[in-house]
Amino acid sequence: AKVVVDDGHNSSDEGFVEGLWGTVAEQVDETFYDDRSDADDDLEKGCIKFPQNKLYGRESNLGLVRGLYSEIIQERKSKGSSASASSRIVFVGGYSGVGKSAVVSDLVRQLTEDDEHGGELVVYAWGKYSKLQSAAAPFSAISDALSQLVVELTKDKHAGHLKKLREKLCDDDSRISMTSTFPSVAPLFDSMESDPATVAASMSQVKDAFKDFMSCFCTCLECPLVWFLDDLQWSDEASLELLKDVLSNIELDNMLFIGAYRSNEINENHSFHQLMNEVEKVRGKDAARDNMPVSRMDLFGLCLDDIGEFLSDTLGKDSPSEVATLTEVIFKKTLGNIFFVKQALEELVRKNAVFYDTIMFSWEYNVSTVQLDNYISDDVIDVIKSKITGLPTEVRMLVVIMSFIPNNANMSLMKTLLEGEGVRTMKVEKLISVAINNGIILHLSEVDRYAFAHDKIREASYDIIPKGKQRDELLVRISNVLIDLANADKANTEWALFVAADHLNSVVPELVPRMELARLNFRVAKINLAKGATLGANVNLNDCLTCLNHSGEKWKDYDFTLNLFNELIASEFTVGKFELAYVHLQDVLENANSLDDKFTAYSYKIKTFAEGENRDYNKGVVVGLHICKMYGTIIPNSPKRT
Q1: Which long-range contacts (CB under 8 A, 24 or more apart) does 545-554 make?
Q2: What is the tens place of the pLDDT at every residue in 573-615?
Q3: How far is the C-alpha of 234 from the C-alpha of 244, rounded, in Å?
Q4: Beta strand pairing status for 88-94 and 255-262?
Q5: Among 354, 356, 363, which residue's Cα sits nearest to residue 315?
Q6: Phi, psi (deg, nearest 5) at residue 389
Q7: 233 and 243 in contact (C-beta within 8 Å)?
Q8: Is-contact 184 143, C-beta < 8 A?
Q9: How many angstroms separate the CA atoms of 192 and 179, rounded?
């Protein structure tokens, strides 16, 4: 500012500012200076920041899990440094948002801190199943966990472990089955003499190879492997079959397996509930080994005092008594579900019922209990939707697109997907940063990927665009990007084909050429078959047939139709749908051009007389002899001894 003379005061020109009267003097008395007004964190003021690295009300649950981990270490030490210790298994049940994964995260955090202070090494792998499981590849969560193990074990600090593992993983058949089903584990093997993608494996081969791999892996470690699978209520049948086999293996040592599931979404007839019972039964029978029983742990909502402590810490208060009214209202609405508590508090902030006082530099609320209660929605999905719809348009588009992908996404994929929606790639990092700051998504630094902070957020994002033309057109655009991605990188992006096929099967037929979709479904079916996932392959093959029928190309595209029916006949027979297999083979026998093309159909026609409710062995023999005669092999009806 320009310094001028104040004629009225007849003073020197020092200390006067144009447009102001009086002097500008040095502030001697600093009693009124408050350093909480420093500008460095002004942008963060008014934004709720939840406490980190503190677990509320779960001390006993955490103690149980950590105790199981310690038991493995102590058992191993008592037997000698080179000895193994029995594995421990714990199943954690509870409603969505109650804090199941938080217990495991805090366990790993504590173990990692111990490691940094000279304790044991920590090897941790986790995977999470998705509600969009129909769009996910088989073994999706197991594959994610194995990918993390590869990243961890190829670090310099694990060079010794990797060397020992490679020495043990010398069985060629196991290597081929493992790398065919889980391509990401290839770096753990010494060499790759064949392309694993071209090798099909039966489920029994996959189970044997996986059991051998896990046994070798765990025994090579100096510390127990912590293996966590979340949302097992959504796991696919192939995963359940594999898990049942490996968890029932009483010879598998040096591992703490934690499986979390939503207890309100399974009943006694659910496949995962049956798995837990069967694993308990098998491991409980072994009297020769100690500490074999399976643990079960059920989590419920936090108590009123725990919620009060959490809110007090979040709002920076000295005592929970300062937020007693707020605590009572939020507890009544959420019943102590910690995820719902966070969403409720954020909703109150958005509605300015809870606000940051910039004069007092503290969080305050000055509305009545009734008013607070009315501000909070009874449906947490509505709360989250309100939060998402309040985001900038392009950030909202980001989270909507992410909700249609069951996998975690990397930056490159998000840039490609958003570019198709008209968003400049240079803006994507900023959009992701906004979503992270708003608690919508998380950055998984170990694998450099992005994931929703909670499944309820994915669920709310998924419903932002209602079913109809707009959603269908978006799904087609997303699917086309994913197909291009899979074609460009076949080794690591098979999952993209599963997502694309699932989405395109769900949209109105007019948007997708039927033959293109038929070929995509057939391609996905072949991948499922290569992984031993026969049930998933059967679904894909039937989707393929539906598309083929609607295309008008059935038997016009002769080679494709014949290949499809041959695979479908074998698939229906494998999963026990003998009547359907018979219908399909009859179609082939009526339309195929040559005996060679009918060979598969005739082979299974003979088998159908030996399976199912209407089995007829005598008729099967007669038909079989007739078929053999057609192919030039004559066998008498009543052969004589020679």
Answers
A1: 545/518, 547/514, 547/515, 547/517, 547/518, 547/521, 548/514, 548/515, 548/518, 550/509, 550/514, 551/513, 551/514, 551/515, 551/518, 553/514, 553/515, 553/518
A2: 988 898 899 999 999 999 999 988 998 998 888 787 777 666 7
A3: 15
A4: parallel
A5: 363
A6: -65, -20
A7: no
A8: yes
A9: 9
Question: Can you name the residues that pair with 88 across neighbouring β-strands?
Answer: 256
CA trace torsion 225, 231, 232, 238 (10° rounding): -90
CA 305 – CA 310 distance, rounded (Å): 9
Residue the block writes with tokens 């753990």: 188
At 194 the pLDDT is 43
Q: What integer pLDDT is reported at residue 38 of this predicted model?
A: 47
Pairing of strands 362-364, 355-357: antiparallel
In degrees rounded to 5, what are phi and psi of residue 259?
-115, 120
The span from the CA of 387 to the CA of 342, in Å, is: 12
Residue 641 DSSP one-character state? P
Residues in contact with 209: Cβ distance below 8 Å, sequence separation at least 6, in sequence order: 173, 174, 175, 177, 178, 181, 201
- Matching residue, tokens 């939840």: 50
The residue length of the chain stands at: 642
The rounded distance, in Å, linking the Cα atoms of 442 and 489 is 26
Q: Is the distance from CB of 408 to CB of 442 less than 8 angstroms? A: no
Q: Give backbone dihedrals phi and psi of 151, rounded to 5 degrees, phi first.
A: -60, -45
**Least reliable range by pLDDT among 23-37, 113-127, 493-507:** 23-37
C-alpha 140/C-alpha 136 separation (Å) is 6
Inter-CA distances, 414 with 419, 481, 485, Å: 8, 11, 12
* SS3 annotation, 215-253: HHHHHHCCCCEEEEEECHHHCCHHHHHHHHHHHCCCCCE
d(CA 305, CA 313): 12
